[in-house]
């Protein structure tokens, strides 16, 4: 999934004939993982508390080209990468031509996993419901958010063949793809089992899957609800009926 994180979170900067590839994240563990996988790059703690993984050497930047060229999904990402590629092409005559093809999301690779690592998540919603035996209903949700990428979110929806793309509050153009169903999320579970997310988000996924099997195997009893709440750090549903992991 490392290359997919680079493609999703990477930023390509050009200053004259100088190029710089950077990934900024609050948690440095993913950046160290990327550096170990690639075998080069530097990790620096910025003044704002974020960590930057950077590649500034032109020869090392050239080694990144096969990862990005023709393998990007988001339109805005392709546009950012183009100037970077063109700057490198001025220094290396053997560089492959810029490939503007847009790669489509697939459940057969790790792109969606990297995308979810950055802009998605797994949540459990506990709602009050008078008709339910215990007065509560537990529902599972998977979601990814993105701005001005409705076409891509719809493509993800088509992959899972379920869920919906909805508008979100906040900046104009912000939308969310979500699966909000205790039965339909099995496809999500199968995908992320094959292409796992990492670190805290992986722990969240494991909790989420455990809750799925609690719900699937039997009706919601007090014992089962207690197990779910334990997975949710023992937060009371009466105090917080919408719990996220």
Describe what is shown at a glance.
The chain is an alpha+beta fold. The protein has 2 domains: 2-89, Homing endonucleases (Endonuclease I-creI); 119-244, Roll (Endonuclease I-creI). The protein has helices at residues 2-9, 29-38, 58-62, 65-68, 75-89, 111-119, 150-160, 186-194, 199-217, 222-231, and strands at 11-15, 18-25, 42-45, 51-55, 120-128, 136-147, 164-167, 174-179, 242-244.
Mind explaining what this structure looks like?
The chain is of the alpha+beta class. The protein folds into two domains: 2-89, Endonuclease I-creI, CATH 3.10.28.10; 119-244, Roll (Endonuclease I-creI). The chain has helices at 2-9, 29-38, 58-62, 65-68, 75-89, 111-119, 150-160, 186-194, 199-217, 222-231, and strands at 11-15, 18-25, 42-45, 51-55, 120-128, 136-147, 164-167, 174-179, 242-244. A five-stranded antiparallel sheet has the order 7-8-6-5-9. It has a four-stranded antiparallel sheet with strand order 1-2-4-3. It is elongated, with a radius of gyration of 21 Å. Keywords: Mitochondrion. This is Orf245. One of its GO terms (molecular function) is endonuclease activity. Pfam families: LAGLIDADG_1 (PF00961).
């Amino acid at each position: 999934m490392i290359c997919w994180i680079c493609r999703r979170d990477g930023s390509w900067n050009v200053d004259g004939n100088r190029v710089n590839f950077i990934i900024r994240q609050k948690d440095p563990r993913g950046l160290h993982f990327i550096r170990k996988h690639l075998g080069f790059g530097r990790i620096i703690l910025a003044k704002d508390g974020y960590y930057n993984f950077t590649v500034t050497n032109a020869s090392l930047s050239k080694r990144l080209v096969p990862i990005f060229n023709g393998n990007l999904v988001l339109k805005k990402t392709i546009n950012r990468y183009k100037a970077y590629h063109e700057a490198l092409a001025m220094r290396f005559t053997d560089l492959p031509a810029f490939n503007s093809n847009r790669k489509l999301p697939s459940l057969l690779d790790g792109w969606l996993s990297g995308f979810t690592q950055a802009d998605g998540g797994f949540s459990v919603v506990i709602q009050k419901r008078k008709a339910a035996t215990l007065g509560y209903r537990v529902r599972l949700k998977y979601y990814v958010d993105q701005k001005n990428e409705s076409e891509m979110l719809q493509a993800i929806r088509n992959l899972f063949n379920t869920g919906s793309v909805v508008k979100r509050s906040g900046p104009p153009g912000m939308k969310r793809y979500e699966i909000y169903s205790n039965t339909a999320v099995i496809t999500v579970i199968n995908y992320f089992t094959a292409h796992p997310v990492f670190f805290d988000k992986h722990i969240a996924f494991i909790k989420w899957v455990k809750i799925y099997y609690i719900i699937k195997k039997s009706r919601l009893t007090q014992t089962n609800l207690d197990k779910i709440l334990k997975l949710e750090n023992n937060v009371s549903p009466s105090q917080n009926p919408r719990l996220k992991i």
